[in-house]
Prior knowledge:
By secondary structure, this protein is α+β, with helices and mostly antiparallel strands. The chain has helices spanning 20-28, 43-52, 102-105, 134-141, 167-173, 198-207, and strands spanning 35-37, 61-64, 67-69, 72-74, 77-82, 94-99, 117-126, 146-149, 152-157, 160-165, 187-195, 213-214, 220-222, 231-235.
Amino acid sequence: MFENDFFELLGIVDPADNVEFLATFLARREGARAVAFAPAGTAEEAHSALLERGLHPSELHPLGRQMELPEGPSIPRFSLIGLAVEDAPGLPASFVCAHLTPELMRRPEWLVHPNGADRLRGIHVLVERTAPLLPAYDRLFGIQHVTTTDTVATVHVGRHRIVFSTPDDFVTMHPGIAVDPGFPLPGIVALDLGIAHHEATADSLRQRQIAFDELPDGTLVVQANEANGAILFFSEG
Length: 237
């Protein structure tokens, strides 16, 4: 959990607990599975805006999850809107998630992490081709938030970015980083995490005996086989 965003670790505790979507994914591989977008306003406002753009959002779905806290059980509540595959192509799954009780999820002690990560900067997604994605993201976020360089497409979402590329282009951009030749497309291959202090993060990884590499620009990289199937970039700025 970070101050303004998060990533969530999922696993199966009870196979009978409506987890077919996760079981299907884990049968293929571990790694990053879906993207949750935060609405700028309420979930209802986001739903109306998506409809006005001619998109195909699901109806609002209320969700509550019991969470065990030191002071007793608590139930954070959310409002979810599913996004159709054709409206957010290239993402294996995506939805809008409005946190209705953010104070329960962003406790101060949960925002400080030993490895120094303090925000999610973006994600990297591998696809067969980027050109077919552009019209959909122009509609979803606005043409001014979508940029292309050769065959790489970047979608700017608030302070975050989604970088779409082919596997070959990803390896070209990040020499020395291994990508499984059988990586299923489309798929989220990497998370880009922000850090405050490069050396503090490097020291934390060393202390925990987590293997990492350093790119020429100073970015620290934890390969997928060290991080449950997702490449992790740690960078300042």
